[in-house]
Amino acid sequence: MAETILHIENLSKAFVRSIKTARKKDAIEKISLLNHLDLTVEKGKITALIGGNGSGKTTLFNIINGFLDADQGSIKFINGRIHELLGKKPDTIARLGLGRSFQDNHIFDELSILENMLVAGKETFGETPFVSLFSPGRNRKIEKQKTERAKTIIENIFGSGNYFWQHKAEKAKNLSHGQRRILGLLRIFMADFKLVLLDEPTTGVNPEFFQSITDILNRMVNENKMSVFLIEHNMGFVKQVAHNCHFIHDGCIRASGTPAEVIDNPLVRNTYLGF
Ligand SMILES: Nc1ncnc2c1ncn2[C@@H]1O[C@H](COP(=O)(O)OP(=O)(O)OP(=O)(O)O)[C@@H](O)[C@H]1O
Ligand SMILES: [Mg+2]
What we know:
The chain has 275 residues and is of the alpha/beta class. It has 11 helices and 10 strands.
């Protein structure tokens, strides 16, 4: 029987915003985005979350990693011990072993490839990402170790004499979109995460990079024993990489199973895939 690494129960989140009514009066509109959502992520697997634009996928990730509060529910992260994540801060959650990438990637343009790798890591993931980079005396030994780690990560994936290590001093702003996406994924290996949330890893990426991204995700799970929970719109990619799939619609999970099963579900076809 599969082990669980993340267990979400009865999670609800509404946003309120002020609107002008037809009589030009201010009013409050409440949008219930997540409604009593239940979801499980299996340990050692790649799990995909699919659903339409604005269905709440990124919001769910923001709640899991502590950027947003929920209105009710529980999120249990099971990593040796059971940790309730709701109410914890992002850096505490990262230190527990839960990392993430972002829909807009969060690469530092003015930093080099290597520097972008060095600022990643559990110990610098939260409030003070620049500490290790800009206090050289204090952290020279740690920086050397991290540089070695970055080199090993990059060479394990791309072999020796690869583009990324050869261009490690290149500023990130000079990389292509696909290369930046891959850099965003490489950074995740710098920390010892047990579960990583990836928000649309292939969006805007040329298909020539898909195989590299697939290799990286498989390496996360097979060699580094991470579990991966990813948001994705590309169904071909989901079928290729994911073991499990959940479909979010109207605030809760409306279909779960293998990617093939979920893609075949009539509700998923009618409301999301459009065929
Ligand atoms: N802080 C906020 N205040 C008010 N509304 C918000 C807030 N954050 C998100 N929303 C709204 O919640 C809805 C869901 O947004 P979210 O980014 O979670 O969607 P998504 O499923 O990730 O969509 P996409 O596939 O386009 O990335 C959107 O309509 C968005 O405008
Ligand atoms: Mg999103």
